[in-house]
Design brief:
It contains twelve helices and eleven strands. The chain has 352 residues and is of the alpha/beta class. Strand 5 (97-101), helix 4 and strand 6 (164-169) form a beta-alpha-beta unit. Helix 7 (240-250) packs across helix 9.
Length: 352
């Protein structure tokens, strides 16, 4: 490594965002330190590059700060609450640039609602379309995902001499994804289902975020350190029906979309992107401030995610395991149990 080689430390670096950022940085000649808990193997192809992998306990603040100090870039993909912001505050004056992944769910609707407290279509937030970084965010003491992320943002932005870029993605997707929303359609295609049933005639819109596009934003923030908050979503503006079609095409399968008006009925027609009102984020801020240009569109990016998912499931089957072993985090999600109730879908269509 030369004296001019830029260095980066990625906290949570073996996940979907960390892996994509590592690939983006090594392509530009960075030396990358990947810190992780040892739960995921990450992108094994990165071993051929200037990438070092270490196990690190996030709760060991002294160890975290010691390893992070002096890097040109520190990316934190897993910071979750104010105490994590307090940890990172110790890097003030110690790093070239800090980038922290937040979430688009920190925004509130016009009536003050937000995703964590939604009980159904009637109380789904009425968001401005599109949402901009200056729109209101959650500010309460609730200890659920979105309020904690919003509090993390405020903690970081209050620190002097800390060049922190906070990125707000939407529905993140890519290889190594623990959420893997696309599995909703991938499994259907693999099971020979050539028909999907979608509520609201498949028109729901929820901003997606390719890890490749997020990685581009991280690289731009590293090149221009500063204190900022930016949305981090694809500009494709796809409907749920569009997403279904892209996934099926990636698997070279035909698809018939059966839509019906109104919200899901007893779960039928609901998907991981189903929202009662549009949740769309603007990328104007990143375009103006950093000259950001989207690197990949959904059709291309999702094909890589689908390919990875199929390979993971195939490997599990060779071990005589099923998809729940390939994607244990997804399998633990309560809603995943209801994703594949084909009998209910068929009965619904037959009764129409």
């Amino acid at each position: 490594m030369s004296d001019t080689t830029r260095t980066a430390m990625l906290i949570g670096g073996t996940g979907q965002i960390g892996s994509a950022v590592a690939r983006r940085l090594v392509a530009d000649g960075w030396s990358v330190l990947v810190a992780h808990r040892g739960e995921h193997h990450g992108d094994t192809e990165l071993a051929e590059h200037d990438v070092t992998s270490i196990r690190l306990d996030r709760d060991d603040t002294d160890a975290l700060i010691e390893r992070a100090r002096g890097h040109d870039l520190v990316l934190d993909t897993v910071a979750y609450e104010p105490r994590h912001g307090e940890q990172l505050a110790r890097l003030a004056g110690e790093v070239g640039s800090l980038v922290v992944i937040s979430t688009g769910s920190v925004y509130t609707g016009r009536e003050g609602g937000y995703l964590d407290i939604v009980t159904g279509p009637d109380d789904f937030p009425d968001y401005p379309v599109p949402l901009r970084e200056t729109d209101p965010t959650i500010d309460n003491a609730e200890r659920t995902y979105s309020p904690l992320k919003a509090a993390l943002e405020r903690t970081l932005l209050a620190v002097d001499d800390l060049p922190v870029s906070i990125l707000r993605p939407g529905a993140v997707y890519g290889p190594f994804s623990p959420a893997l929303r696309e599995w909703y359609f991938i499994k259907r295609a693999l099971d020979g289902r050539d028909r999907v049933v979608l509520s609201d005639d498949g028109a729901n819109r929820f901003s997606t975020s390719s890890t490749v596009n997020i990685a581009e934003l991280v690289a731009l923030c590293a090149d221009r350190p500063g204190t900022r908050v930016l949305n981090a979503v694809d500009t494709d503006d796809l409907s749920v029906a569009d997403i279904a079609g892209a996934v099926y095409r990636a698997l070279d399968r035909d698809l018939e979309v059966v839509g019906f008006p109104g919200p899901p009925v007893d779960g039928v027609g609901s998907t991981p992107w189903t929202v009662a009102r549009p949740l769309l984020l603007s990328m104007a801020g990143a375009t103006v401030e950093l000259g950001y240009r989207q690197q990949v569109h959904y059709e291309e990016a999702v094909a890589a995610a689908v390919d990875w998912a199929v390979r993971e499931v195939t490997a599990a089957e060779r071990r005589q395991e099923d998809w729940t072993a390939a994607f244990p985090g997804l399998a633990k999600r309560a809603e995943a149990d209801r994703w594949f109730d084909y009998a209910a879908e068929d009965a619904f269509v037959a009764a129409r």
